[in-house]
């Protein structure tokens, strides 16, 4: 009886994790911007979530909690690689990306459709990680502010200001594309 | 509010996450201010664009690999009598096994998310009360030195937190014990001032706790939340993932002074 309930708990948790796998992978892809790295992050995050499943507070948003773990794994792995000298400094990378003119987006159609998907994606990729993740969670994954705050382990006020600044940067980057296009 | 402040609220309004009173004021302002109306339209346009951003789907192979890894992990973890309890953290490990035996039958209820049977709730409360009493007695009988109490409570809480000071301003640490707030483990530190008034410092895992924006008060270089409940004044703040709360029967100004003394030592 007890053994069965223990297994049932593991099975229920596994089903919950797999249900959100697309969303977890999406976030990992937007953070890592590399398919293999994103897969590693998601697999490690799922294992970690499973090991710490007793820390999940029932009644709260499982997806937000899983996002939090994905981000934590990404940051840990990123820092490890950084120490091992396998990757460029995050600030330098973000600094380069923060200037849209320095890395113009791929081809864009003009006319009635001012921005193609590649524009949106490219503009989003140029954002610093904290801004990009806030936008991905809020606008692509449609999380509430409170859940974004859980996923990013920061106060709701911080999420609001990150989103405000991120959106301002996105508008600027998109306007830049339009200018270089005409 | 200035136009800039209104504009900061626009995307919240569009997401339906704005306080109704603020939303009303913002709508009225948008009707009257062409500049903010243009910002509103630009926000709406950007939201529509973001809806078209790529949503990467998990590759097929990943799903299988994750499922296999989780099953391997489950097989490695030996099934314990209280394994099902881990899914919903309920009882202190010390008494977990005994209580799990008592409630083995209704356990399946927990797994499907139904409300717990009254007996399960009672069993849990009984176990938690036992733990509180046992620990409090140990402290009162002098078997718990403050240092040992701090070490015990940190282990029990399973989170590293800065050591609460033995004294802060007029306050002197006179007791400590484990307790629970809505099933959340909390370490309670009891301080007393020369007038005999008690101020309690509560420490808990607070990674998921969101402090309200309203009610934050600047005290020196800190900005904790201050509020009142049941005739007591309380303040709440976070240091990384650890939540702290101080509560006492005094005015906000006085509690702020006490807060500052304690906070500066943490």
What does this entry show, briefly?
The complex is a heterodimer of chains A (182) and B (266). Chain A has 182 residues and is an all-alpha fold.
Q: What is the total tally of β strands of chain B?
A: 7
Structural class of chain A, please? Answer: mainly alpha
Radius of gyration of chain B: 25 Å
How would the global form of chain A be characterised? Answer: globular
How far do the termini of chain A sit from each other? 70 Å
Q: Helix count of chain A, per DSSP? A: 9
Mean pLDDT of chain B: 77
Q: Report the total helices of chain B.
A: 10
Give the quaternary arrangement of the chains: heterodimer
Strand content of chain B: 15-25%
Largest sheet of chain A: none
Overall outline of chain B: flat
Q: pLDDT under 50 segments of chain B (min length 5)?
A: 79-114
Uncertain spans of chain A = 1-6, 86-113
Structural classification of chain B: alpha+beta
Which strands sit side by side, in order, in the main sheet of chain B? 1-2-3-4-7-6-5
Could you characterize the architecture of this molecule?
The complex is a heterodimer of chains A (182) and B (266). With 182 residues, chain A is mainly alpha-helical. Chain A contains nine helices and no strands. In chain A, α7 crosses α9 and α8 (145-151) crosses α9 (156-181). The longest helix of chain A has 26 residues, at 156-181. With 266 residues, chain B is α+β, with helices and mostly antiparallel strands. Chain B is built from ten helices and seven strands. Chain B has a seven-stranded antiparallel β-sheet. In chain B, β5 (225-229) and β6 (232-239) form a beta hairpin. In chain B, α6 runs antiparallel to α8. The two termini of chain B are 37 Å apart. Mean pLDDT of chain B is 77; it is low at 79-114.
Write out key terms for the chains shown.
heterodimer, A: 182 residues, mainly alpha, 72% helix, 0% strand, disordered N terminus, B: 266 residues, alpha+beta, 7-stranded antiparallel β-sheet, 10 helices, 7 strands, flat
């Amino acid at each position: 009886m007890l053994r069965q309930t223990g297994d049932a708990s593991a099975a229920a948790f596994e089903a919950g994790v797999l249900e959100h796998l697309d969303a977890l992978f999406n976030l990992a892809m937007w953070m890592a911007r590399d398919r293999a790295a994103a897969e590693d992050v998601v697999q490690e995050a799922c294992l970690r979530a499973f090991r710490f499943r007793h820390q999940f507070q029932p009644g709260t948003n499982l997806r937000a909690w899983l996002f939090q773990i994905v981000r934590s794994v990404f940051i840990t792995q990123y820092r490890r690689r950084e120490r091992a000298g396998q990757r460029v400094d995050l600030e330098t990378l973000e600094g380069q990306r923060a200037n849209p003119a320095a890395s113009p987006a791929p081809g864009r159609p003009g006319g009635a459709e001012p921005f193609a998907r590649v524009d949106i994606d490219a503009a989003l990729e140029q954002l610093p990680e904290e801004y990009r993740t806030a936008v991905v969670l809020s606008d692509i994954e449609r999380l509430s502010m409170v859940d974004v705050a859980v996923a990013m382990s920061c106060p709701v006020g911080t999420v609001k200001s990150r989103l405000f600044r991120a959106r301002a940067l996105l508008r600027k980057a998109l306007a830049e594309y339009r200018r270089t296009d005409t | 509010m200035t136009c800039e402040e209104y504009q900061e609220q626009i995307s919240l309004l569009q997401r339906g996450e704005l306080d109704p009173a603020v939303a009303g004021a913002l709508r009225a302002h948008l009707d009257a201010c062409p500049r903010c109306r243009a910002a509103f339209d630009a926000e709406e346009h950007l939201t529509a664009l973001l809806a078209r951003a790529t949503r990467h789907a998990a590759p097929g192979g990943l799903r299988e690999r994750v499922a296999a890894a989780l099953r391997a992990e489950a097989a490695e973890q030996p099934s314990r009598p209280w394994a099902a309890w881990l899914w919903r953290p309920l009882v202190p490990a010390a008494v977990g096994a005994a209580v799990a035996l008592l409630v083995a039958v209704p356990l399946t209820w927990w797994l499907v998310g139904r409300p717990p049977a009254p007996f399960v709730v009672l069993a849990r409360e009984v176990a938690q009360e036992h733990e509180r009493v046992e620990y409090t007695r140990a402290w009162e009988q002098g078997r718990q030195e403050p240092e040992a109490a701090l070490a015990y409570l940190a282990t029990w809480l399973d989170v590293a937190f800065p050591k609460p000071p033995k004294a802060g301003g007029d306050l002197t640490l006179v007791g400590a014990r484990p307790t629970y707030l809505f099933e959340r483990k909390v370490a309670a530190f009891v301080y007393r001032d020369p007038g005999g008034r008690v101020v309690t410092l509560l420490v808990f895992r607070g990674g998921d706790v969101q402090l309200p924006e309203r009610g934050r008060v600047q005290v020196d270089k800190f900005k904790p939340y201050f509020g009142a409940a049941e005739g007591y004044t309380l303040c709440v703040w976070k240091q990384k993932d650890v939540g702290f709360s101080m509560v006492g029967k005094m005015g906000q100004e006085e509690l702020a002074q006490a807060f500052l003394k304690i906070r500066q030592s943490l």
